[in-house]
TrEMBL record:
The keyword RNA-binding does not apply. It comes from Enterococcus termitis. Residues 21-350 form the FAD dependent oxidoreductase domain. Its cofactor is FAD. It is an enzyme of class 1 (oxidoreductase). Keywords: FAD, Flavoprotein, Glycerol metabolism, Oxidoreductase. Residues 464-586 form the Alpha-glycerophosphate oxidase C-terminal domain. The keyword Oxidoreductase applies. GO terms for biological process: glycerol metabolic process; glycerol-3-phosphate catabolic process. It catalyses: sn-glycerol 3-phosphate + O2 = dihydroxyacetone phosphate + H2O2. This is Alpha-glycerophosphate oxidase.
Length: 610
């Protein structure tokens, strides 16, 4: 099914002329999840996103579908159970996107360490039980200090006690968004990027639609809908503020996360690695290998700047370099080694109350109570305490707030679904792992509103089994199915590496690319495989700018810096032909891309350091 600049025009006409059942404001992962389920249920669904799909926050995560093992330090079992179970659901409906990638957790003997060798084994065993991986190749195991250093020789040996290895999943966050959006479009939804909500329409004091502006043409138009839902993440309060009939109390407290990318020859890790910062600040940092590169992060700082354009500061760089060079003292990573970077906002809710789809509370077990738990578990294992003794300690844990409200890392990572008096639904907070579950909760409320207030009945799908676009793959046999798809590409003339790259990027949709091989000529500056990918993105993924393609439909800007300068010329030239851009438009898009790359490269910070 085509999903391109041509279908965009048709979708905008639908938004202008038809009465929608549901209009979604925001095309990140939350809005995309709602759009998929609503469209599949047969609701007349529209979605508007003021930037590219996933551009605001959902392409700027740590790029993991993280299981949250750290919560087990606080015995927040419900949170971890929900997270790992939902992660398995996401992997089943988008099997070509989240991929298993076991995580190494080095354990250091230092103040305020999250785990020691005993507690990490207790946590990993419980984690495996919750994730249902006991007895599989992904079951956890521990490593001695020597085994950890053999695996990661650059790691700091001083204070290292050993390590644990447990199951986690890498993710392609922007691809997960676009595959949800494509499925919604396939099922009849009008999905449109570069359209901004600028106000609301009212009927008898109730919101009955949105005033919108097409940012490509500057045209303003009205969209009428029975239900309007705000899924704009960090922008949630700003969209709520457009509602003239309601007094808006801010509820979001965005924090900024930063990640930096270096070549794997500079900082080599064979698998994702997760450790305390060593700064005794209660935070942990990831170091992750990706496509011959290594990236690390994240920071967690309150943010009050430009939501559309969060940037990496010198302070962010200094913080992360200090941590990485402390943990990998032989690496000597400097700002000049950074090839790419990204900054993103987390849509955190400022209050600890509210409907938390993640489950669990936001409290923390005191250090004294934690020590009591460890002590009683040891005694139980030594048969010197009974099960009743263990339960008695667990039932009398001393709670305290997880951390001071002044610490942005402590803000609730839950989600909130609420409706204003004039009818605006807002679904905010949460994290990528929970997107489907959040959308499911919202759809039940939307279903109820449409029935009770508009006399419209819809049967919701089972979203646990409804695949995203490209997800028509047996989730229990992903590796073999992707290998078979890869073989198809090789048989038609691609190299093994090229065919595998495309198969993993597009999943079951890759067959559409391979069918085009006989009739496709490689564009100057691009390989045949890259040409196939670009053509597919233009025709089927609403790719409107070079940045859309090189940063969000693919990872060229972030993890393919070595070939980016060559590839971008071919991409710009082919997009100019496709869209019929004038020389001025071509120059403007090229400049926009160069500015984005320079920002990612930290060019200004590097020049300031010289």
């Amino acid at each position: 099914m085509a999903f391109s600049i041509k279908t965009r025009e048709k979708s905008i006409e639908t938004l202008k002329t038809e009465q929608l059942d549901l209009l979604i404001i925001g095309g990140g992962i939350t809005g995309a999840g709602v759009a998929l389920q609503a469209s599949a249920a047969g609701m007349k669904t529209g979605l508007i996103e003021m930037q590219d799909f996933a551009e605001g926050t959902s392409s700027r995560s740590t790029k993991l579908v993280h299981g949250g093992i750290r919560y087990l330090k606080n015995f927040d079992v419900e949170v971890v159970a929900d997270t790992v179970q939902e992660r398995a659901v996401v992997q089943a409906i988008a099997p070509h996107i989240p991929k298993p990638d076991p995580m190494l957790l080095p354990i250091y003997d230092e103040p305020k360490a999250t785990f020691n060798m005993f507690s990490v084994k207790v946590a990993m065993d419980l984690y495996d039980r919750l994730a249902n991986v006991i007895g599989t190749k992904y079951e956890n195991y521990t490593l001695t200090k020597e085994e950890v250093l053999e695996r990661e020789p650059q790691l700091k040996s001083e204070g290292l006690q050993g390590g644990g290895v447990y199951l986690d999943f890498r993710n392609n966050d922007a691809r997960l968004v676009i595959e949800n959006i494509k499925r919604a479009a396939h099922d009849g939804g009008a999905m449109v990027s570069k359209v901004k909500a600028i106000g609301f329409i009212y009927d008898d004091g109730k919101i009955s639609g949105v005033k919108a502006k097409d940012l490509l043409t500057d045209e303003e138009f009205d969209i009428k809908a029975d239900v309007v839902i705000n899924t704009t993440g960090p922008w949630s309060d700003k969209v709520r503020g457009l509602d003239e009939k309601e007094k808006m109390t801010p509820q979001m407290r965005p924090t900024k996360g930063v990640h930096l990318v270096v070549d794997s020859s500079k900082l080599y890790v064979p698998q994702p690695t997760y450790f305390d910062t060593g700064k005794h600040d209660g935070r942990m940092v990831f170091v992750v290998p990706r496509e011959k590169k290594t990236y690390f992060g994240t920071t967690d700082t309150d943010y009050k700047g430009d939501y559309e354009h969060p940037t990496v500061t010198q302070e962010d760089v200094d913080y992360l370099l200090e941590i990485v060079n402390n943990r990998y003292p032989e690496a000597h990573v400097t700002i000049d080694d950074i090839e790419a970077s990204w900054a993103g906002l987390r849509p955190l809710i400022s209050e600890n109350g509210g409907s938390d789809y993640n489950g669990g509370n936001n409290g923390k077990v005191s250090d004294q109570s934690f020590d009591q738990v460890i002590d009683i578990v040891e005694k139980y294992q030594q048969h010197s305490a009974t099960r009743f003794d263990v339960e008695n300690v667990l039932n009398h844990l001393e709670d305290s707030l997880s951390e001071s409200k002044e610490n942005p890392s402590a803000v609730s990572r839950g989600s909130l679904l609420e409706r204003s008096e004039d009818g605006l639904l807002t679904l905010s907070g949460g994290k990528i792992t929970d997107y489907r579950k959040m959308a499911e909760g919202a759809l039940k409320e939307i279903q109820r509103i449409l029935k009770d207030e508009f006399n419209k009945s819809f049967e919701l799908i089972d979203s646990k089994t409804y695949p995203v676009s490209g997800g028509e793959i047996d989730a229990g046999n992903v590796e073999a199915e992707l290998e078979a798809l890869t073989k198809n590409g090789v048989e038609q003339g691609l190299t093994q590496e090229e065919a595998a790259y495309l198969a993993h990027l597009y999943g079951s949709n890759v067959s559409q690319l391979f069918e085009k091989i006989p009739e496709t000529q490689a564009v100057e500056g691009l390989t045949l495989a890259e040409t196939l990918g670009l053509h597919y993105a233009l025709e089927n993924e609403m790719t409107l700018t070079p940045a859309d393609y090189l940063l969000r439909r693919t990872n060229h800007v972030l993890f393919m810096r070595d070939t980016l300068d060559t590839v971008k010329q071919g991409v710009i030239a082919e997009m100019t032909n496709y869209f019929g851009w004038s020389e001025q438009q071509k120059a403007d898009y090229a400049q926009e891309l160069d500015d984005l790359i320079a920002e990612s490269d930290l060019t200004t910070l590097k020049e300031g350091a010289k």
